[in-house]
Amino acid sequence: MSCFWDEKLTEKNAGCSKYSEYYRYRIRNMNRLMSEWMDRPKCSTILKTDLWNEAVGHDNALSFFRNRGNTLLGVDISKEVTAVATANFEKCGEKFRFVQSDIQTTPFKGNSVDVVFSLSTLDHLTPEENVKALIEIRRVMKQDGHAIVTVDNVTYLFMRALIFRLAKKTGMLGVLGREKKEETLQSYFPYTLAEFKSFISRAHLQLIHWSAVSLLPNFTHGVYVVRNRRLIETIDLMERHKMFDLFKYELVFHLQK
């Protein structure tokens, strides 16, 4: 798995992101949810469960937690991703420690982290691996700590995750794209709300809030959103409405011990 993400990073850095506007929009909505659920951390220890965003640099995934009093920790299964993310953060003058590690067995002490931030990491793990990862998240969290966890949603309106799941089950991944894309999808496990709630329960974590972000497909943000203020306002209203949550692209969970 580590070699796979090393190769993906090389491919990604060969050109700029096609969806940078989408990623900014996604993080903006993530930050909105977190500000509703918890105070912005100060003098806290933050753990991020993968470092892809920090290595690629096409969004500011940790913007909600960037505070000079905070210490940023991070793990990633890829040696190359960890190294590039470390090099990027060394330029920022912040307190951080990034290490290569599996999220299921991190090197950090128990009860040592104020906030765990897992941004679309666990939808690359099988159900049993998810339970192990959530148990590890619970172990490192302080008693009054928080975890913000996101996974891709099978019931997304535009059916991307559902199509991938069905293609995997029927052995039809090859029809969705090239060999490299098929390899990517083999490590992709989107979940339904009910499925992920069951993982949370098995890990003995408390679900405090859940919501979702990103109703429209990512390509629409590059084509339309940046040019049409009225459309932006309409999408923002839909993003804020709970009735659409089951049909958005990414489920978001707020967990505590």
Detailed description of the structure:
- The protein has a single domain (2-158, 188-256), classed as 3-Layer(aba) Sandwich (Rossmann fold), CATH 3.40.50.
- Helices cover 42% and strands 19% of the residues.
- It has helices at 2-13, 20-37, 52-56, 79-90, 127-140, 160-169, 179-186, 193-202, 218-223, 229-240, and strands spanning 45-48, 71-76, 95-100, 113-119, 141-152, 206-213, 250-256.
- Strands 3-2-1-4-5-7-6 form a 7-stranded mixed sheet, with helices on both faces.
- The longest helix has 18 residues, at 20-37.
- The chain is globular, with a radius of gyration of 18 Å.
- The model is unreliable at 13-17 (pLDDT under 50).
Q: Helix- and strand-based class? A: alpha/beta
- How many domains would you count in the coordinates? 1
Radius of gyration: 18 Å
> What is the CATH homology-level superfamily?
Vaccinia Virus protein VP39
Helix content: 40-55%
| Overall 3D form | globular
In percent terms, what proportion of residues is strand?
15-25%
* CATH architecture classification: 3-Layer(aba) Sandwich
Distance between the termini: 30 Å
Report the top-level CATH class. Alpha Beta
Number of strands: 7
Unreliable segments of 5+ consecutive residues: 13-17
Largest sheet: 7 strands, mixed
What's the arrangement of strands in the largest beta sheet?
A: 3-2-1-4-5-7-6
Q: What count of helical segments does DSSP give?
A: 10
Element order, helices and strands? Answer: HHEHEHEEHEHHHEHHE
Mean pLDDT: 84
User: What would you call the quaternary organization?
Assistant: single chain
Q: Which fold name fills CATH's third level, the topology?
A: Rossmann fold
